[in-house]
Design brief:
By secondary structure, the protein is mostly helical. It contains 3 helices and no strands. It holds the Pfam family PRTase-CE.
Length: 143
């Protein structure tokens, strides 16, 4: 039994896309970042079509979805830019992902009161000593 269904498969019909999956645009920062990714798989999954989802039910409007997705994406790129030293190949602005996938991250919004997954956008959880960023939520490190 489930209470809420996650619908995040961009290639399936009538998905709610209750995740962060931005539309490809003309933002030079995003395009430069995306072009710099060395990954080769699933590039066609990196962005969603402007007409998806067909009916917006997760956000208050399609315009607000785009605004929110772009804020998370750009802030995530900024956070990655603050990393001192080598940036691991699985770190993406919208969450950790298989390093061979040329996508921006999973972008999940689903976490619990106990913890937040690392496949959520970095603005939610990225917290590394010596890094000039305070996340919206702290990751539980265990006891």
């Amino acid at each position: 039994m489930w209470n809420y269904e996650i619908q995040n498969h961009a290639k399936f019909n009538n998905q709610r896309l209750n995740i962060v999956k931005p539309v490809k645009g003309a933002d030079p920062i995003v395009n430069t970042y995306f072009g710099s990714l060395m990954a080769t798989k699933y590039e066609d999954y990196a962005f969603r079509d402007v007409n998806t989802p067909a009916i917006e039910t997760f956000f208050s409007s399609p315009t607000n979805r785009i605004k929110f997705e772009n804020i998370l994406l750009n802030k995530g790129i900024e956070i990655i830019g603050m990393i001192q030293g080598e940036v691991r190949s699985n770190i993406r602005p919208l969450g950790l992902i298989n390093p061979s996938y040329k996508v921006l991250g999973l972008g999940t919004h689903f976490f619990t009161w106990r913890n937040i997954p690392n496949n959520s956008p970095l603005v939610y959880w990225w917290e590394v000593p010596g890094h000039d960023w305070r996340p919206l939520f702290s990751v539980s490190r265990g006891n």
